[in-house]
Amino acid sequence: MSLKNLGDISYFRLNNEINRPVDGQIPLHKDKEALKAFFEENVLPNTKPFDSITDKIQFLIDHDYIEAAFIGKYRPEFIEELMAELKAADFHFQSFMAAYKFYQQYALKTNDGEAYLEGIEERVLFNALYFADGNEDLARDLAQEMISQRYQPATPSFLNAGRSRRGELVSCFLIQVTDDMNAIGRSINSALQLSRIGGGVGISLSNLREAGAPIKGFAGAASGVVPVMKLFEDSFSYSNQLGQRQGAGVVYLDVFHPDILSFLSTKKENADEKVRVKTLSLGVTIPDKFYELARNNEDMYLFSPYTIEKEYGVPYNYINISDKYDELVANPNITKTKIRARDLETEISKLQQESGYPYVINIDTANRANPVDGRIVMSNLCSEILQIQKPSEINDAQEFVTMGMDISCNLGSTNVVNMMTSPDFGKSIAAMTRALTFVTDSSNIEAVPTIKHGNAQAHTFGLGAMGLHSYLAKNHIEYGSPESIEFTDIYFMLLNYWTLVESNHIARERQETFADFGQSKYADGTYFDKYVTGQFVPKSERVKELFADHFIPQAEDWEALRQAVMKDGLYHQNRLAVAPNGSISYINDVSASIHPITQRIEERQEKKIGKIYYPAHALSTDTIPYYKSAYDMDMRKVIDVYAAATEHVDQGLSLTLFMRSEIPQGIYEWKTENKQTTRDLSILRNYAFNKGIKSIYYIRTFTDDGDEVGANQCESCVI
């Protein structure tokens, strides 16, 4: 038997039987049977045996599967000891989906694809050894965090750590284009290079002059942002790792840019093929002023980036439109056009209904909360990365006259369910911070100098969370309830506190801070003002009970941290971000990110396999009332939970809104009919803005067709 010729297998059939209720009961035991069969029929017969981990490692090095350098930093005896500890942890996947995902997507296989060369313990071992960089104590701590599934590195890191033939460890990249042909050409090359090494790429086009703007020295006029979007889409389609995956990119444009309507129209289903973008994602940056104008039903002016840069001497992205709006309107040197604000708001909602796009970045909200000197101008492919950028200046020789700062995203996630059982929350976060620091320190994107420079200056990462809904349901707490909001508030406060503590430790050890630390709100201590009041502590009896075994910093602890940071600084410019982390959450057997589940028994279509069913974490008679589908939930509850986390997250959170095309009665008080309308989306976007939400990712709309009957549709089945 081999992985390419498995013969008679039963695990897919057993897993599919979950979707066939028996006497009104969902047969969850069938998933356990599928899991057992998967190991008996697939994993165990097709895993290459070795006498010891030392023998296995030697084989992997000799045959160019893993790098020798990181292994050579440790004593062989230590590696044997650590592997024994990992085996003693007695790890078991809790669902068929978790095991299947790991072995299909993450486990190292032989070159011919015939056999597995590692299980979860070996993948954790290589991650721990790689990220600890020779530090045995840290390697042991990281191994425990990962095998206990308290820490999950992002997919690129977890997949590639230690492998000799690998992609980058970072997740995605952000670049901005300035208004000249040299910058456009350079950014297209950057997109090609970044897509080649495997990351999603975010691009800001707001600085580009609008269609019809003059071009110095030419009789013609500029073509605007749409043709540039097409160039980027073609670049991503071409640079796809030899066809292994679709290149992924998102382009952002400010809503006060004159090309905003043509930008949005590129995603419409009936758009002309000459302008339609099929695979490129769209995002908009929205200043506060837009919400004010739409609320008051006023006209809005769109401002020419060409004349703004000519008048103010800085690219469009670096003008605060909300502050300077009236000045820009009154200035005769600024070319402008007029539209109705509510017409644009409706266009955004229409497109979100039709396609889920555009993503929304509340850019002034993000910058108000930004403790670092500089300006946030855009986000990434999943809308959770919000970091400062600086523009570049490039001459005709394609040389950098001024080296700007762009962004690479180094991500990881805590598992809320398991973190809450950590014997030492602070020690857990310290180990994760060290692992992520290694990723940012070792990242070196030579092909894109602005990414390399930005990473070297900022030392950023983004630690987030997954499994929030799983934890709440397991503890009989309704998602969106006051207790769930309070729990989220305290959990993310702890992430913030302990990453600050460890970043301060690293700065003190290395005698180094991120660039321009001295101009930040950390350096003058004002960042800590809200924390030294002592307001961020559990208040309800239920949340006090949940955090009873964990240290909760009081006002005096925050004051001590403030003094330490003001004295020795922080190594990392940014530390927290919550990604969607959909795929990797399956391996952790918990709900993705911090949003609600969509189905109690999730149905996934796998290539060449068909449907696989995935029951929610700890689904049982006791927990089923607390696993309400996101599609049947008031999205204001989701926004409230995200707002509680946002209070403590220095970057962003990937917030998806889940809507039905036919909205059940009673969810929204303003609804007089069931059909979803553009007004519903406009109201929710404004609610999110008023709650301090920095970004909104997809709008996902579920259409009921009534054709399929099973556990997915019958979510009220008793277990």
From TrEMBL:
Gene3D superfamilies the UniProt entry points to: 1.10.1650.20, 3.20.70.20
UniProt superkingdom: Bacteria
Enzyme class: oxidoreductase
GO MF, one annotated term: ATP binding
Protein family per UniProt: Belongs to the ribonucleoside diphosphate reductase large chain family.
Catalytic activity: a 2'-deoxyribonucleoside 5'-diphosphate + [thioredoxin]-disulfide + H2O = a ribonucleoside 5'-diphosphate + [thioredoxin]-dithiol
GO biological process: deoxyribonucleotide biosynthetic process
Coiled-coil positions: none
Domain Ribonucleotide reductase large subunit: 558-580
One Pfam entry name: RNR_N
Nucleotide-binding listed as a keyword: yes
Listed EC numbers: 1.17.4.1
One cellular-component annotation, GO: ribonucleoside-diphosphate reductase complex
Keyword tags: Allosteric enzyme, ATP-binding, Deoxyribonucleotide synthesis, Disulfide bond, Nucleotide-binding, Oxidoreductase
UniProt name for this protein: Ribonucleoside-diphosphate reductase
